[in-house]
Amino acid sequence: MGNEAKRPVVAYLGLGGNLGDVPATLRAAVDALAALPGSRLRAVSRFYRTPAWGMTAQPDFINAVAALETTLAPEALLAAMLEIERDAGRDRGGDAPRWGPRTLDLDLLLYGDAAIDLPGLQVPHPRLHERAFALLPLVEIAPEAVIPGVGPARAQLEAMAITGIEALR
């Protein structure tokens, strides 16, 4: 696949972090995403404070979801997202614990209605339907979003507890 899709696609990206000035880092990441070639920011959810997931002995996270209309192919979009993470000080090195503290985490949640299963790139995000911290901001900006192979995002969210998640703005 090349660097560009044939026509614009709306991708939904999860943003999060729990180290440093996270709101400022998330705003800078949104600006960087909006500046990607062939891309236009369509919406950004409110920021949500959420309890740490996976490895719980760490500070709460702040999470959001952005809708990006883009002509970038999924692989090129992911590469750009990883570069934005690195620019924000994210270390995905071998010593970094999975689900550990981080300055910035960007996840490609949905890429249009595509189902992609490549090494290093799975869309929809394989645990999206299990994570209220991603579903809540997704449904806020895309109430009719459908998770390929799973169903409506709203139905997934309604079926789970969202205790401990607090809207910040």
From TrEMBL:
<dbReference type="GO" id="GO:0016301">
    <property type="term" value="F:kinase activity"/>
</dbReference>
<dbReference type="GO" id="GO:0005524">
    <property type="term" value="F:ATP binding"/>
</dbReference>
<keyword id="KW-0067">ATP-binding</keyword>
<protein>
    <recommendedName>
        <fullName>2-amino-4-hydroxy-6-hydroxymethyldihydropteridine pyrophosphokinase</fullName>
        <ecNumber>2.7.6.3</ecNumber>
    </recommendedName>
</protein>
<dbReference type="GO" id="GO:0046656">
    <property type="term" value="P:folic acid biosynthetic process"/>
</dbReference>
<keyword id="KW-0418">Kinase</keyword>
<keyword id="KW-0808">Transferase</keyword>
<feature type="domain" description="7,8-dihydro-6-hydroxymethylpterin-pyrophosphokinase">
    <location>
        <begin position="98"/>
        <end position="109"/>
    </location>
</feature>
<dbReference type="InterPro" id="IPR000550">
    <property type="entry name" value="Hppk"/>
</dbReference>
<comment type="similarity">
    <text>Belongs to the HPPK family.</text>
</comment>
<keyword id="KW-0289">Folate biosynthesis</keyword>
<comment type="function">
    <text>Catalyzes the transfer of pyrophosphate from adenosine triphosphate (ATP) to 6-hydroxymethyl-7,8-dihydropterin, an enzymatic step in folate biosynthesis pathway.</text>
</comment>
<dbReference type="GO" id="GO:0046654">
    <property type="term" value="P:tetrahydrofolate biosynthetic process"/>
</dbReference>
<keyword id="KW-0547">Nucleotide-binding</keyword>
<dbReference type="InterPro" id="IPR035907">
    <property type="entry name" value="Hppk_sf"/>
</dbReference>
<dbReference type="Pfam" id="PF01288">
    <property type="entry name" value="HPPK"/>
</dbReference>
<comment type="pathway">
    <text>Cofactor biosynthesis; tetrahydrofolate biosynthesis; 2-amino-4-hydroxy-6-hydroxymethyl-7,8-dihydropteridine diphosphate from 7,8-dihydroneopterin triphosphate: step 4/4.</text>
</comment>
<dbReference type="GO" id="GO:0003848">
    <property type="term" value="F:2-amino-4-hydroxy-6-hydroxymethyldihydropteridine diphosphokinase activity"/>
</dbReference>
